[in-house]
Amino acid sequence: xxxxxxxxxxxxxxxxxxxxxxxxxxxxxxxxxxxxxxxxxxxxxxxxxxxxxxxxxxxxxxxxxxxxxxxxxxxxxxxxxxxxxxxxxxxxxxxxxxxxxxxxxxxxxxxxxxxxxxxxxxxxxxxxxxxxxxxxxxxxxxxxxxxxxxxxxxxxxxxxxxxxxxxxxxxxxxxxxxxxxxxxxxxxxxxxxxxxxxxxxxxxxxxxxxxxxxxxxxxxxxxxxxx
Amino acid sequence: xxxxxxxxxxxxxxxxxxxxxxxxxxxxxxxxxxxxxxxxxxxxxxxxxxxxxxxxxxxxxxxxxxxxxxxxxxxxxxxxxxxxxxxxxxxxxxxxxxxxxxxxxxxxxxxxxxxxxxxxxxxxxxxxxxxxxxxxxxxxxxxxxxxxxxxxxxxxxxxxxxxxxxxxxxxxxxxxxxxxxxxxxxxxxxxxxxxxxxxxxxxxxxxxxxxxxxxxxxxxxxxxxxxxxxxxxxxxxxxxxxxxxxxxxxxxxxxxxxxxxxxxxxxxxxxxxxxxxxxxxxxxxxxxxxxxxxxxxxxxxxxxxxxxxxxxxxxxxxxxxxxxxxxxxxxxxxxxxxxxxxxxxxxxxxxxxxxxxxxxxxxxxxxxxxxxxxxxxxxxxxxxxxxxxxxxxxxxxxxxxxxxxxxxxxxxxxxxxxxxxxxxxxxxxxxxxxxxxxxxxxxxxxxxxxxxxxxxxxxxxxxxxxxxxxxxxxxxxxxxxxxxxxxxxxxxxxxxxxxxxxxxxxxxxxxxxxxxxxxx
Lengths: 227, 520
Known about the structure:
The complex is a heterodimer of chains A (227) and B (520).
Chain A (H helix, E strand, L loop, with lengths): L1 E14 L2 E14 L3 E5 L6 H8 L7 E6 L2 E2 L5 H11 E4 L11 H11 L4 H14 L15 H13 L5 E5 L7 H18 L2 E6 L2 H6 L2 E6 L2 E7 L1
Parallel strand pairs in A: 3-8, 3-9, 6-7, 7-8
Antiparallel strand pairs in A: 1-2, 1-4, 4-5, 9-10
Chain B lengths: L2 H14 L4 H41 L2 E5 H5 L13 H10 L2 E14 L4 E9 L1 H7 L6 E4 L8 E5 H6 L7 E3 H8 L6 H10 E3 H4 L12 H5 L1 E4 L5 H13 L4 E11 L6 E16 L10 E5 L17 E6 L14 H14 L8 E5 L5 H39 L1 H9 L4 H36 L2 E2 L1 H6 L11 E2 L5 H18 L1 H9 L2 H6 L2
Parallel strand pairs in B: 3-11, 5-10
Antiparallel strand pairs in B: 1-12, 1-13, 2-3, 2-9, 2-12, 4-10, 5-11, 6-8, 7-8, 9-10, 14-15
Helix pairs in contact in B: 1-15, 2-13, 2-15, 2-17, 4-12, 13-17, 15-17, 15-18
């Protein structure tokens, strides 16, 4: 079953008054349990593709379907609900809430889904344990290293067991050892939880781990490599 | 929003306050200052108004007046010819219905004393009825209150000072010798008078606030009545001064009468000899200015005003009314008129068509104007203070939201809706409002305590304006607790603070999530 399916996806926008054609008609599908990387040079449209798939932006034309449901024409709150229920995001800059502890950051998606505090705490502690942060649940982001913060971000993306995790350059701010650890962790979660991972990256290490690589160039799919 | 979501959002909002403590403290301080000032000023206005209203009703006119419609229409001119007779019948019915009443014949004239003249508004009163209805007679500074059947006069303290009547509380050394000591016919009396006055500097009295004409030189030359002077001392001093003719006065007035058939007004000049028997200094400055009280019954005949039982107004107050309270429902003009009509109907009589029943508020336009003016100007001032502090909150929230644009993008990517984000930031701003308002209300209330129990002495200003400045407070302006305003200010400030977060949040939400996430 396709977790994600895009059809003739086009995204144009203006940057400082100049029209940018970020995507020029991308049709792709990702199945459940894929561990895929969208690669390409800067400006190739990989982040734009991830944003459209993650319902963070709307396409100029074309469609995105998540789990078979088209997102075209959905209202802001409906898109927010899809993000809340079905998609986990991991960002290059971790984007943790600085005033919340690791545990609270991880609990946030569960609370938004209406989970009680006790249950959210229990699940979050378990996920923090899985990403190797047992005992660090009360630390605030500024008290953690970059790798630890990214693990918290992964735990936050994972805790609600989404069908899809979108990771935008997740290793860009990490040293190679930490990056490898993080990728190992995500691969393990992909294998055990059957969670679909789609990365946007130009990090060779990420591409080494990915089982499928979609190369974009100038807003078009240049080639696809499956392993 | 679930309880867990609400708790999470509130918790996050609370913690966000500590992100930039200095900024939060400054904003909280701005809110606290504006709330405190508003609470303080409102309490002061409330106190001045409450005291003024009580003093009007208790010392000046009671709750309701019955007059002829023509007198009421021209009341500023005091048209004594628009009077009415047979007030005793009305008073009897009112008494049966649970109301006290006091007749007055109000007229103007010039009062001549040994030392000068002054225009005076005279209230010819039935002293016993007046005493049962009003309280100014309890504030006789020196001498005693007038008695029916005499030609005594009680005069306002400020007029008495100008006309050198009564016993001066403060006097300069030259006037003391020329005016008081010279009044003593015996050396013993002179020594007695000297023993009652002490230099201002030794008296323990302080210079009054807002006094424009009290220079150090004048105060050095001033004598004041000793605080140790007893009632008997005062009575003896009054007797000595009265014996010298100091209290003898002459009233020059014009008696205006209206020809019932033609409506023509006839003027008759009249001179009435009288003796000042007391000086009134009540908490209502209107009773202490150029005002005098004289027994009504002494003016009935040819040597008086030839009144023939007529009066210009009948003051009314219910028996159950208390001096500490403002007139209630039973003291309303409607209730009084209804009682009067009912009583008259029981006797088979009709309500006199030429009479009107009016509440006290209809007679105090000067006070209403002063109060309304102060209310408006104070509230405009307070509004701008509020505005300034809440622009501060809006600025703080704008900065906070700008600074957290990326965070907003992340929260939106997690699935937070626009409504939840607006709510989250409104809660954060409301918390600033809650803390600021709490501090503001507490500080405002604390500042009120001395204002309620001590107040500010405005007696010098009151005297300089001859007691005629709208407010009916003769000496100390005091505040009053105004709990509804305190609660209202607290709630409005909190709600307004929360509201201030909405526009910048909505503005931030216009940005696409992707742009928010890229924002640096």
